[in-house]
Design brief:
Bound molecules: adenosine-5'-diphosphate, magnesium ion
Distance between the termini: 33 Å
Radius of gyration: 18 Å
Shape: globular
Order of helices and strands: EEEHEEEEHEHHHEHEHEEHH
Structural class: alpha/beta
Strand content: 25-35%
Number of helices: 9
Number of strands: 12
Largest sheet: 6 strands, mixed
Length: 255
């Protein structure tokens, strides 16, 4: 096996008295497409938010490309990471949120060019070219001068995906990207994600309740329950012959 691109090792996350992640262990290989499923409150979003450095951890270690995320090595010791290290690590990942989280006061084009220009220092023309190419990929090239509020939810989410990709991340994180959408708008968003899943080099970690979609695009499924992985396996195993009673009950309820 090659070095995992993402590793969670005995990760503990608490919110006050509540233990949300309870010694969580898993890893993702480069290029792998992994889907997290599980009941509400099982810690799925927290995993993605920790990777984006939107939440800290209380114990354990998270690595991205073998480098500790929340810590950095100094003289053989691990110490809490400074802002520069976090920024460097964050650039490896792009996230798509359930509620889009676009910048409402910026045009679609500017949503895509802002971070590449300010964070990566890309010249304006290059950032614009990149935006154009990505908007074309998600089928929104004619919407570049609109504001997010003028678009449908499905269009906004496709902008969200394009905006994350504009940073050329190695890993794309999706947190229930279609669950805020009207049913008729889900398909276009899933088609964009499906297209990305065909890219060999891109690693994907996806949280979704779209079970048929998960089965189709994932290399591996992690079933979360109570802040740990209750069961994991290929889509064929998890959906076809789950071993744990809790997995069977969850699938019976959602399928
Ligand atoms: P999931 O995405 O699987 O539904 P989450 O990771 O969002 O679960 O949340 C896991 C648990 O952590 C839930 O019980 C939730 O209420 C709690 N939680 C999440 N974020 C916070 C927070 N900022 N403060 C307090 N509790 C939180
Ligand atoms: Mg969630």
């Amino acid at each position: 096996m090659t070095q995992p691109i993402i590793e969670f090792e005995n990760v503990v996350k608490r919110f006050g008295p509540v233990t949300v992640l309870d010694r969580l262990n898993f890893s993702v290989q480069p290029g792998e497409k992994v889907t997290i499923i599980g009941p509400s409150g099982s810690g799925k979003s927290t995993v993605l938010r920790i990777l984006m450095t939107l939440e800290t951890i209380d114990d354990g270690i998270v690595r991205v490309e073998g480098e500790p995320l929340w810590h950095e090595e100094s003289g053989g010791e691990l110490k809490p990471a400074g802002e520069a290290h976090l920024r460097h690590m964050r650039e490896k990942l792009g996230m798509v949120f359930q509620n889009f989280n676009l910048f409402p006061h910026m045009t679609v084009r500017r949503n895509l060019t802002e971070a590449p220009r300010t964070v990566l220092g890309l010249p304006k023309a290059e950032a614009n070219d990149r935006a154009e190419e990505l908007l074309d990929m998600v089928g929104l090239v004619d919407q570049a001068d609109k504001f997010p509020g003028q678009l449908s939810g499905g269009q906004q989410q496709r902008v969200g995906i394009a905006r994350a990709l504009a940073m050329r991340p190695k890993v794309m994180l999706f947190d229930e990207p279609t669950s805020a959408l009207d049913p008729e708008l889900v398909g276009d968003v899933l088609n964009v994600i499906r297209q990305l899943a065909e890219e060999h080099d891109l690693t994907m970690l996806l949280v979704t309740h779209e079970m048929r979609f998960a089965r189709e695009i994932s290399d591996r499924i992690l079933f979360f329950d109570g802040g740990t992985i209750c069961e994991e396996g290929t889509p064929a195993t998890i959906f076809g012959e789950p071993k744990q009673e809790r997995t069977r009950e969850f699938l019976k309820a959602v399928l």
